[in-house]
C-alpha cells in the first residue's frame, strides 16, 4: 500500500501487488488521481508508524504528512473508526471485484471501445481497461459514463 500524490497535491492510497507493479503502472501511465484525474502520479511522503515502548505498544497506522496543498488527514483514530473505515474500503474493493468479474478487459483500447459503445458503433457491454488522464477527461466531457477504479487492478496478462 502506498500513499500517492498528483501534481495538484491530492493524496490518496493505492494497493499494488509489489513495488515493481506500482512502478510498471506509473511508467505505463495507468495511475490516475481519483479526485482530479491527473495522470502525473508519484509517491507521497509518509510518516513512519511509531509504536510505544515495551509492552505498552498500541496499534499504529502510517499517516500521510501534509503536502503543499492541504489534504485532510486523521491522527489517532479510535479503533472503532478504523474498523469502520477498513470495512468500507473492503466493501468498495469487493463491489469493484464483482463488477470487474462481469466485465471484459480491453486494456489500452478502453477509450476507443467506450466511445464506440457511446456513439452506437458497438453493442453496450461492461468493460474495464486503461486510459490516460487526458483521455479520461475527454471521455467525461463527451458525456461517457466512465469512472476510475478505486482499487488498482492487475491486468490479466500480468497475473502470475
Q: Helicity level, as a percent range?
A: 25-40%
Low-confidence stretches: 47-72
What value does the Rg take, in angstroms?
Answer: 18 Å
Query: Which geometry do the CA atoms define?
Result: globular
* Strand order within the widest beta sheet: 2-1-3
SS-based structural class? alpha+beta
Strand content: 5-15%
Distance between the termini: 19 Å
Description:
The chain is α+β, with helices and mostly antiparallel strands and 160 residues long. Helices cover 31% and strands 12% of the residues. The chain has helices at 19-27, 79-101, 110-118, 133-141; strands spanning 2-6, 11-14, 41-43, 104-107, 127-129. Strands 2-1-3 form a three-stranded antiparallel sheet, with no helix packed on it. The two termini are 19 Å apart. The model is unreliable at 47-72 (pLDDT under 50).
Question: What is the structure about, briefly put?
Answer:
This protein has helices at residues 19-27, 79-101, 110-118, 133-141, and strands spanning 2-6, 11-14, 41-43, 104-107, 127-129. It is α+β, with helices and mostly antiparallel strands and 160 residues long.
Amino acid at each position: 500500500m502506498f500513499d500517492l500524490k498528483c501534481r495538484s497535491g491530492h493524496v490518496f492510497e493505492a494497493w499494488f501487488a509489489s513495488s515493481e507493479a506500482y512502478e510498471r503502472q506509473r511508467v505505463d501511465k495507468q495511475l490516475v488521481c481519483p479526485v482530479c484525474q491527473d495522470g502525473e502520479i508519484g509517491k507521497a511522503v509518509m510518516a513512519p508508524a511509531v509504536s510505544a515502548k515495551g509492552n505498552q505498544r498500541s496499534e499504529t497506522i502510517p499517516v500521510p504528512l501534509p503536502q503543499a496543498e492541504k489534504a485532510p488527514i486523521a491522527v489517532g483514530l479510535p479503533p472503532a473508526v478504523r474498523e469502520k473505515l477498513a470495512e468500507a474500503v473492503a466493501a468498495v474493493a469487493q463491489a469493484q471485484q464483482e463488477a470487474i468479474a462481469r466485465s471484459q478487459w480491453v486494456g489500452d483500447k478502453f477509450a476507443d471501445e467506450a466511445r464506440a459503445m457511446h456513439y452506437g458503433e458497438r453493442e453496450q457491454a461492461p468493460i474495464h481497461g486503461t486510459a490516460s488522464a487526458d483521455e479520461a477527461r475527454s471521455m467525461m466531457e463527451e458525456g461517457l459514463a466512465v469512472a476510475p477504479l478505486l482499487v488498482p487492478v492487475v491486468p490479466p496478462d500480468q497475473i502470475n
